[in-house]
Amino acid sequence: MRIFTKAIRALHTSQSRVRLSSTSNSARQCCHRSPSFSSVSDRNAIVDLRSDTVTLPSSHMLQAVTQAPLGDDVMKEDPTILEFEHSVADLFGKEKALFLPTASMANLVALLSHCNTRASEIIIGTESHINLWEGGNPANLGGIHTRQTPEDNDARLSEQGIMDCFRNGVDDHWPHTALLCLENTHNMCGGVALPKSYLDQIGRLAHERMNIPVHVDGSRIFNAAVAQEITVKDLCQHVDSVTICLSKGLGAPVGSVLVGETEFIRLARRARKRCGGGMRQAGVLAAMGMYAVQHNVDRMVEDHVNAKKLGKALKENGFYLLRDGKIDTNIVYFGLPEACTITREDFLLRLREEYGVKLTGGYSSGGKLFRAVTHMHIDNSKIDRAIEGMIALGNS
Predict the structure, then answer these.
(1) Total count of domains within the chain
(2) Which domain covers residue 253, as residue numbers?
(3) CB burial of residue 365 (10 Å; 0-12, 13-18, 19+)
(4) For position 73, which CATH number holds?
(5) Parallel, antiparallel, or unpaired for β 357-358 and 256-260?
(6) Which residues does 32 contact at the CB level (< 8 Å), separation at least 6?
(7) 198, 228 Cβ separation under 8 angstroms
(8) Would residue 375 count as lying in a domain?
(9) pLDDT, tens digit, for every residue of 105-148?
């Protein structure tokens, strides 16, 4: 542990030197009238709106690592992991929790645990992350068929759409519907926060009419709870399992947690091992996740305010906004004004080189949409710079 502590201190020193060097370079660049951001790598200079996964751990978070007691988690002997899992399970009002390296693995493990017989299928949203962005894991690695139904403008699956997909396996031609999956917040629908009333409604539908569990890909579930001023326990009361990502919005560098009932987590632990997710002294990761959950949830309000400010400014200047500019949390999808003459590629390139703003593009609507995601490294001044650059280029 002493060696690890020395390594962390060395990292602090190295980061400090880099920050000092970058600050000096930035000061010299400011002397020029037209600064270029093309070679700037300092996160304090760049406005990185590509994702809320780009955040770096704070000094306090790194310090938590040096103080974390460790053990072998595969043998269930890492005290930091055990404490963290217990606290997250309690936070969500579920019996047990399981720490995993990624949210994609957590979702896969959840599916494997709920669909533990062959010829199983899940009902899932067409635009959901599990369906689009996780490598086809249900079928590719789980042998699980996906039955897709479209989301509406508010990221909801209709009761009729769900029931139309439901198959109870009585016909030999059919797979057996074993699980219903939701996503909250919903990325591709624009960071929509599904309300408790809807989750309760769908939970009752699944449990009472279909006799199947509900899994929520809640990678950004804390954003959903903060946006609605509700606890995650109340929000997830009538769902059976939830994936929580620690490196989206919360600011941890890695890690996810899966919560559910005792038997489900027992199966999930076995599935995690089959997926290669059993880690040894994983408390070094859980310590940062624990710090994130304890300290970085309430501040998400700032991210939501900044996202709404960005969306409002773009809409007022002729940009297309998904959901007509209704923004629930920290994700903004937008398109260039109709009169704009520059290409998507030029917009991204010039925004980065001339204003130091990073975005991703190529989403939906024929690849014409851009995505901006606010997070703890984006303050009001950075949002102002992003707005300035986007409007200037969008009107060119």
Answers:
(1) 2
(2) 61-295
(3) exposed
(4) 3.40.640.10
(5) unpaired
(6) none
(7) no
(8) yes
(9) 999 999 999 998 989 999 999 999 999 999 999 999 999 999 99
